[in-house]
Amino acid sequence: MPTKRTTMRSSKGTKLYAKRDSKGRFKDIQSYKKAHSMDIKRKSKAELAKAAKAKAVKAKATKVKAKAKTVKAKAKTTKGKITKAKAVSKAKPKAKAKKKK
């Protein structure tokens, strides 16, 4: 568990964080500005877990979308082949009929 920090002000009026040890003595004095900016930059375990979960969901959605696109392309290709086959089968009887004349 992180150590608690007490907010204080220096004699000049600068805001400070005072870190204490288990006996209550000052362990470290930090500038509030620097410590606060680092707190904002650092992500918690919960935030990291949430980001990882969102990334996994997004990757899965992209994969599903790509698969759907592939299936649609295959269906379009198959439909084109069927249409060509029908056109060829219709064209053959006419060719035979012309030969008879």
Give an overview in words:
A hairpin with a 5-residue loop joins β1 and β2 (15-20). The mean pLDDT is 78. The longest helix is centred in the C-terminal third of the chain and has 56 residues, at 45-100. This protein has a domain at 5-41. The chain has helices at residues 32-41, 45-100, and strands spanning 5-9, 15-20, 26-31. It is α+β, with helices and mostly antiparallel strands and 101 residues long.
Short account of what is shown:
The protein is of the alpha+beta class and 101 residues long.
Features:
single chain; 101 residues; alpha+beta; three-stranded antiparallel beta sheet; 2 helices
Summarize the helices and strands and which ones pair or pack.
Layout: E1 5-9, E2 15-20, E3 26-31, H1 32-41, H2 45-100
Antiparallel strand pairs: 1-2, 2-3
